Amino acid sequence: MRNSRFKKTAGAAILTLSLLAAKANPQNNQQPPPKATASAKDPGVRNGPAAAGGAATSLTGSESILFNVGKQTFSEVDSVFGTLNGETDSGLGPSFNMNSCAGCHAFPAVGGSSPQVNPQVAVATLHGAHNTVPPFITIDGPVREARFKTNPDGTADGGVHDLFVITGRSDAPPGCNLAQTNFAPQLSGGNVIFRIPTPVFGAGLIEAIDDATILANQSANSAAKMQLGISGRGNYSGNDGTMTRFGWKAQNKSLLIFAGEAYNVEQGVTNEVFPNARATTPSCDTLGHPEDITNLVTGAASDIVNFSMFMRLLAPPQAALSYGNVGADSIERGNGAFVQTGCALCHTPTLTSGNSPIAALSNKNVQLFSDLLLHNMGSGLADGISQGDATGNEFRTAPLWGLGQRLFFLHDGRTADLMQAIQAHSSQGSEANSVVAAFNALNDSAKQDLLNFLRSL
Ligand code: HEC
Ligand code: HEC
Questions:
Q1: 171-199 pLDDT tens trace
Q2: Distance 425 CA to ligand 2 centre (A)
Q3: Which residue's CA is the closest to the ligand 1 atom numbered 36?
Q4: How far apart are the first and last CA of the chain?
Q5: Which one in 123, 230, 383, 417 has a CA-CA gap of 20 to 30 Å to 398?
């Protein structure tokens, strides 16, 4: 259990301070230019060992085994066919973005987000593949997937278009000559948007939060939210009417569904949740579908079940009480400023999980720093993609736990600088405009405390 400094909510304090700031800056529809004197800056990625990646505490013996098997499966590298260089699983492609879950979910530990060196550069030409690396993929940039806004006929697309194909790989079927998507005309036409990986640490706790808890939090502090122009709404499953919560737009219901989708979309491996191939390419596609299934002889779980168990049983990231030159007092003041400026009205410090058959997930304080709701983030962040109930300018409040050891920020990974990430919250129509104005009205040392606090998470 971490310390209890996140538990305060101080609704009244939020209201007074933010209103003062909002008054001081009535033009809060527009992003005020950063002050010339500003010296507060992002302290950068927190050094030290990964504060995430282990199993949740107090798992039973058999839960620990499931975690370890799941972690191994999540880290498994897929070949197209057979076992090249120790690749232990197959089914990759015909098109793909990467060859393992852990390749993209890598930093600061397996289950996280983009690593320092983007593995998509190397995978483009692995085993003789001759893919061109698109310009938005760079060796020191974030892992990215690409979505197209519209189809050639102008109707909405919104789907993921894989970067690479297996053509040319030594393990591809001999007649396979599927062409790689040509991104150049799509890029010049402004039709491409990007998404970077969200970390899955503590994902089992997020899954275990009851809808009623999310809705009660949505109703809390309503006066303060109204004053600041913050609304927020849930995304809902068209299947059973419950709240969806995973992904940048809270578009996916569960870890199992996300695992099934990712396996097919990112790696081209069909499975029991998404059993059909995304495109018909018989010359490249010789295995039957679904490629990943429950073992028909032993009854052993399919990969997607193992992925889900690993993600479900991963511990939440551990916050630091102090680090580097940053003392506990600065972090404590920063936490206060985070609440007082109104960040915490969207980035809810703590929600509580419901009853779960897994004791480690049952009735816990989940210190995720998110309300799991969608907010209009303005024209500057809008990506024009609708998913479920989420419209083109709405995003799920990004959970901030683990932020201290995250390299890239915002849905498309446009910045690695926390100050930029905060300023990007402010643009025409954003629900965060007044809060960013309140942040910008803080003096430099208070801003620095807030940034120091964020990197303690
Ligand atoms: C090419 C990189 C890539 C690979 C490979 C990949 N992911 Fe992801 N993952 C992403 C991106 C990008 C997102 C955010 C997608 C979105 O919301 O649009 C994401 C989001 C997720 C989430 C949502 C977490 C949350 O709280 O929002 C889960 C769960 C997940 N991935 C599981 C997996 C699993 C399991 C695998 C392996 C089958 C996998 N991913 C493989 C890039 C990847
Ligand atoms: C109206 C709700 C709202 C408010 C208020 C708000 N945020 Fe956010 N925050 C979001 C959403 C939604 C995202 C994801 C946006 C995206 O990726 O396009 C986000 C993303 C972030 C990120 C990037 C996280 C990541 O993993 O990429 C940081 C850092 C952050 N917020 C910090 C803050 C701070 C600090 C404040 C207060 C000054 C604040 N936010 C106020 C909704 C809000």
A1: 999 999 999 999 999 999 999 999 999 99
A2: 6
A3: 101
A4: 14
A5: 123
